[in-house]
Amino acid sequence: MQTGLRKEGTASPELQKFLNALKAEGRLLKPEEPATAFVPGGTVLGAQSHVDTFTYANTVGRDPIYGATGSTNTRPAALAPGGRFPVVPAPNYASNPTTDFINVKDPSQNGGHTVLGDNTIDESAVLNQVLQYAADNNKIAYFPFGKYRVDSTLLVPVGSRIIGEAWSTITGNGAFFKDLSNPKPIVAVGNPGDVGLAQIQDMRFTVSDVLPGAIILQFNMRGTSPGDVGLWSSLITVGGTRGASALTNTCHDPSSEYQAAFLGMYFAPDSSAYVENVWNWVADHITESFAGGSNIAAKGGALVASTRGTWLHALGSEHWWLYQLNLHQASNVLITLLQSETNYDQGDHVQQTPPAPWVADITNWGDPDFSWCSGGDTRCRMGFANYIQGGSDIYTYASASWAFFSGPGYQPCAGAYQCQNYMHWISETPKNLQAFGLCSKDAWATLHLADGTNIVSQDGFTGSWPGGGGDVGRYTPGNI
Description:
By secondary structure, this protein is mainly beta. The chain is built from four helices and 29 strands. The chain has helices at 13-19, 124-136, 245-248, 362-365, and strands spanning 2-4, 22-28, 36-39, 42-45, 50-58, 66-71, 101-103, 140-143, 147-150, 154-156, 160-172, 184-189, 198-207, 214-219, 229-238, 263-267, 273-282, 300-304, 310-318, 323-328, 331-336, 339-341, 384-389, 392-402, 420-428, 431-441, 443-448, 454-456, 469-475. The strands form four sheets. Strands 7, 8, 9, 11, 13, 15, 17, 19, 21, 22, 24, 26 and 29 form a 13-stranded mixed beta sheet that branches. Strand 27 and strand 28 (454-456) form a beta hairpin. The longest helix is centred in the N-terminal third of the chain and has 13 residues, at 124-136. The chain is globular, with a radius of gyration of 23 Å.
């Protein structure tokens, strides 16, 4: 195996560091197929039969910061059965006959129920009946393109297999989801304690109104193998699209961004879920050529409290108010290719300073309260990309996290590294944290450590985004 990049011509020292951040992990090799990592200037990993964990990167705790680091680490069985991180493709049902499917809108297939899917009436009760019918009869529930309104929680029962058409949409609506002191899921995948199968793909989950008590998608159940409970190629959205006039007509005042949703995704403590290629987005603009507002303060992006095994591959989580991804005393979590952006209304010119309009609930929901910031430090009071609060066995690879603007109306930042003070924040160090490739754009500190140390981007940790990027190639406390 070879990993690395050869240099052709010349490059600046900063660019060379950007090009030559590399990693090899858990590789067993044939004797005649050596592992070699090379950078301009020579080989940094010679021939050997096994590579446990090797990096050549900007490394926290290394002196000098940039260079080679090797270590050993045993992946936990709950996260990596047999020592391997699972990659589970979305079901394609190619071998299933048409009789294995039901069209949820067809009474001749769905148990005799009438479903409209046109966003005109509450269909929570009938959809709950249809999904239970599909699970009871071992059918794959097909949602034709449409917008299915629910005014109370839609339960995805054990045994469900759901597939949409071009992001068929479940939209939450009404008073049931307005109480922020008692948040409720719009869609709940299983009940607490459930064990079994629930697989969803090609769907969209959203809100039709300002719903400060709405958890858009909540995972409660677990399976017996990774991917038994899974979500693939789907969207969670708040605003920006047609069909939610109560939201887009309201959220147009940058001095009073509205609490449009409580959480995008919640992984409950007893859950175990596999998520791949999912975009968890709060609108920063209108996407479908109509007049409407997108000054939105939806509270939290993805909150992981699970301890049983959570796999997040290629999750995009953008423009949530307090954080994009929050690991709250979570254990056995794998994150790969996280992409996040800070809310565009935040920064030097913010008009409603976080956590406002929310009151941070540290005890129940693990919210950041920004108490470490001075009152007027608006670059400090900005939503984090990763907010990590203790737990154990956290493995994160390649987080691309960007800050673009400094306030409403796409106002530019003061300069490079001057949009946001802290991009990734660790309040309590997890036991066995394995973090590689924590990146940032225009953040003064790419990473804040639990002991108060700031990993300042320009102090040896430049990389990723050209001209303003930070790159913590490796942070593995106690395992450098």
